[in-house]
Amino acid sequence: MMPKTYNLHDYVEMKKQHPCGTNRWQIIRVGMDIRIKCQGCGASILMPRRDFDKRLKKVLPE
Q1: What is the DSSP letter of 27?
Q2: Structural contact between residues 27 and 6, judged by C-beta atoms closer than 8 angstroms
Q3: What residue spans define the domains of the chain?
Q4: What's the pLDDT at 35?
Q5: Which domain of life is it from (predicted)?
Q6: DSSP conformation class of 31
Q7: Can you say whether the dihedral through the CA atoms of 22, 18, 23, 10 is positive or negative?
Q8: What's the maximum distance between 2 C-alpha atoms anywhere in the chain?
């Protein structure tokens, strides 16, 4: 299986929706950990890359 490719400032869709009701996130930090920012309420979440890869549904077009 090919790993999903994503870069800094890409918009992604996660498997589970955020409590604010949106499912669109922007990647704002890439490294050993990934920080994503909710495009609905502005909350940000830091998670290990392994967990991010499991929860990622797709990379959205610009």
Answers
A1: E
A2: yes
A3: 11-60
A4: 97
A5: Bacteria
A6: S
A7: positive
A8: 33
Amino acid at 19: P
Which pLDDT belongs to residue 2? Answer: 52
pLDDT, residue 34, reads 96
CA distance 58 to 15: 9
Query: How high is the pLDDT of residue 62?
Result: 76
| Angle at the Cα of 47 from the Cα atoms of 24 and 18, rounded to 5 degrees | 30
Over the chain (62 residues), the average pLDDT of each successive run of 10 is 78 94 95 95 95 94 82
DSSP conformation class of 18: -
Around 4, how many Cα atoms within 13 Å sit in the side-chain half-sphere? 16
